[in-house]
Amino acid sequence: MEQQDSAKRDFTDDLIRGAFMIIFFVLARFVAVLVVIIALFQFICTMISRKPNDNVKNFGKDLSLYAAEIIQFLSYNTDRKPWPFSPGNEVKPENPEEAS
Questions:
Q1: CA–CA separation, 90 vs 15, rounded Å?
Q2: What string of DSSP letters covers 9-54?
Q3: pTM score, whole prediction
Q4: Of 53-57, 81-85, 88-92, which has the strongest mean pLDDT?
């Protein structure tokens, strides 16, 4: 009887994960649209100012990390749900002197 409870719990956990996978698949599609918008905006900014916009570059970098988290979850490489269902990762500065 204990094995049946375990099997039900695992099945329920799988159904819950499946629901989260659908949510994150939709979020991944939204992220893909954002990437296109960012790329076009960055291209226009670069054509006008002759250099890329640093704020857009940083946003694109953060967005790519978020997309990677979604892909890791969707491909079962991790059980940790991406933001907003778990806390976001704290960004560590690439250059420690900049943090001072």
A1: 30
A2: HHHHHHHHHHHHHHHHHHHHHHHHHHHHHHHHHHHHHHHHHSS--H
A3: 0.71
A4: 53-57
